[in-house]
Each structure stands twice: as structure tokens, then as C-alpha cells.
Amino acid sequence: MSGSDSSMSRRQLFERTSKAAIVAAVSGEALAGTGDSAARPQARREPAARIVNFNPKMKYRRMGKTNLMVSEISLGGHWKTREGGRVWAFFANDEVPEDVAKNRTEVVSACIDAGINYLDITTPAECLSYGAALKGRRARMIVGADDHRLGIRDFDNCSVPRQIKNVEECLRRLGTDYLDIWRVQARMDGSSKDEHMEVCVETAVKLLKAGKIRHFGVSSHNRNWLKKVIERHPQVEMVIFPCTARTRKAGQPITRENIIEQSGWSNANDFTTSIFDTVRKHNVGVVTIKPFAGGHLFKSEAKFPVVGVGLKEENDLARLTLQCILALHGEITCIVPGLTTIYEVDNAARVSYMREAAMTPAETRWLEKVTEERLASLPDDYRWLRDWDVI
């Protein structure tokens, strides 16, 4: 499509596909119930046979209008690098190092054993690594992916042919013929334009018809932009945004427990309404990222390969952080922490297995103290995360 006909054609496409999205939303409400229960769908509400990789100890939540039942603790694509960072971007000649393939296979095996059933991928190296790890057992994991180098964060990529290539490259590296979810990565600052989302929706419709994707979502670090996208594009079935142990819902009364709302990090944010209200209204699933602030919550400087079970204090901090986020926000479908070792998988899964046991007052005070200290000293390139204290 080109010229003035492009916008009109896409708008007509939106109108047609919106009807399907509304039907899906209505059927999703019928499945999950009404009121608060819709935000807290648990495994008992869905037959175990219909849940991918079901484990009776794990708790599962419905991912909005996708109707996918997802483990509330899931797997993020990132893990520790050889330099101590968190993101493996690409491999030379698309060849996965032997030790990386071994590590990811062990971690994915531990996730499958634990009942974890969603994997979220953002880079070519992650597609290759998890493709190797999932070989012969692709059906055991719901996979959401996008290639950050080919995605719409680069405005030059904002065309249907380039986004089709984006997905096809993900499929090639994963060694699969479909994505459960294509979750596009929009610009983190919210500067992606509506016409860019129109391109993605048009692409998603084509890919759905071709059987290359099954669901469609979007990721951003700007919640005001995400709110608008959810409201304008009913084809969006799930969204991805950050959440930490300090995150609180906007629009709540100012109380001693919620006093953080009085001192928001950014004056540009609207604290009167919450994105949680938006996703609930539109029956959109929520995957949350950055629970450990990109690793800045911890003091250790471990590098790949990480050996052993890790420090007790950091294991406790990770577990309590995940527990806090899940307990406070029923609208969240799942959290996707980066997990480097099988011990980290076990530690994270225990959050869901044992979540009925509430945190003790001492644990709550310790988590609040440590979280505030670490988030107050974030490096400059991560200070934006404080904009997510109140959402």
C-alpha cells in the first residue's frame, strides 16, 4: 500500500478485525467471570488439560483476551552475560556457543519441570539460544517474541514488509513455524507514532491469516502511550511494561501506606488514573518486566557462567520482590524475570508454590528498605524506572 489509499485501507482493516477482537473480549469475560475475579484467574478456573505444561503447584492466570493460561512466574529472555550484563544481543554467524546452549537447555528444562509455560524473547541471540533449548519440545512453552534490531523502534522499519521479515527472522532463529505471541517493541519513551502501530496491526492480520502468529501484543516503557494504544487498537491482546516492588496503583487515596503517590518521580505523569484500570476495561493481558531493575537490585557482579546457588540475601530479595508484585496487582498475568541458573528458576517458582504464606512484617520492612535504597541509586540510564513507582 502507498499514498493516500494506505491510511484508508488500514482503517477499513481495523474495523473488520475489531469485531473479532470484541468477540474475543466478550468470550474472555465469560471464561474468567466478572468483577475483581476477572483480574485474578487461577488454574482451578480452567481444566488442567487446557493449560500448556501444567504443574499443580504452579498458579496460572488468564492473559486477557488471548485466553491463554500463563504461569504467573514465567521466563524472561535475558540472562547474565560474560561481561556481567543482562542482554545477549547477537552471535557471530548465528552460531550459539556450546556453553550457552547447554545453560539455556538446563534452564528451560528446569522451567518445564516447574510448570513455567511462557517465554518472552527480544533479541536474535535469545531466539537462537531458546530455539536450541526448545528443540523437540516447542509445544511445552508459549513463546512471545520480537527482534529488537528489526522492530519498530527504528522508524525505518515501520512498513509491513519489514515487519513480516522481523517475524520471519524470529521464526528462523527459533526453528519454529509460529509464534504464540508477536509482541512488538515500541519506543521506550513513547515516541512511536500511531501510524507505526497501524503498520503493526496490518502486519499482524496478515501473519495471523498465514498461521505465523497466534496473538498480538506490544511492549513499551511509557504507560500513557500504552493506554492510548490499548484504547485505539482493540487488536492488542496483551502489553508489556515494567513493575517493581515499589510500584503502586495510581488513583488510590493518599494514605500512610500509599504516600509514595505524593512524590512522583516525574511531573509529566498522570497519577489520577491507572493503566491497570485500562487493561482491565479492555480485557488486555499484562506481562511485567524489570522486577529486579535490570539487575541493579543486587550488589553481586556475577558473570556468565554463574556457578552455585547464589547469595542467600539476593535469593531472598528476588523471591520477596516477585511475591510482592504478584500480591499487589491482580491485573498482572505474569512476571518474566531473567533467570541465569536452575537455582534461580527454583527460587522464582517457589514464589507461586508458596504465595499463600504472606510475608512477615520483618520481611516487608526489609524489602521496602532495601528496594528503596537500591532504586534510589540507579545509574542514569535506569533512572526512568522510577517513573513506574505509581502507575
- Number-wise, the strands total 10
Quaternary structure classification: single chain
Strand content: 5-15%
The CATH architecture comes to Alpha-Beta Barrel
Shape assignment = globular
Structural class: alpha/beta
Order of helices and strands: HEEEHEHEHEHEHEHEHEHH
Q: Can you give the mean pLDDT?
A: 87
CATH superfamily: NADP-dependent oxidoreductase domain
- The helix content is 25-40%
CATH class: Alpha Beta
Write out the strand line-up for the largest beta sheet, numbering strands in chain order: 3-4-5-6-7-8-9-10
What is the CA-based Rg, rounded?
20 Å
Q: What count of helical segments does DSSP give?
A: 10
Uncertain runs? 1-44, 259-268
Describe the overall structure:
- The chain has 391 residues and is of the alpha/beta class.
- It contains 10 helices and 10 strands.
- The model is unreliable at 1-44 and 259-268 (pLDDT under 50).
Record keyword descriptors for this entry:
391 residues, alpha/beta, TIM Barrel, eight-stranded parallel beta sheet, 38% helix, disordered N terminus
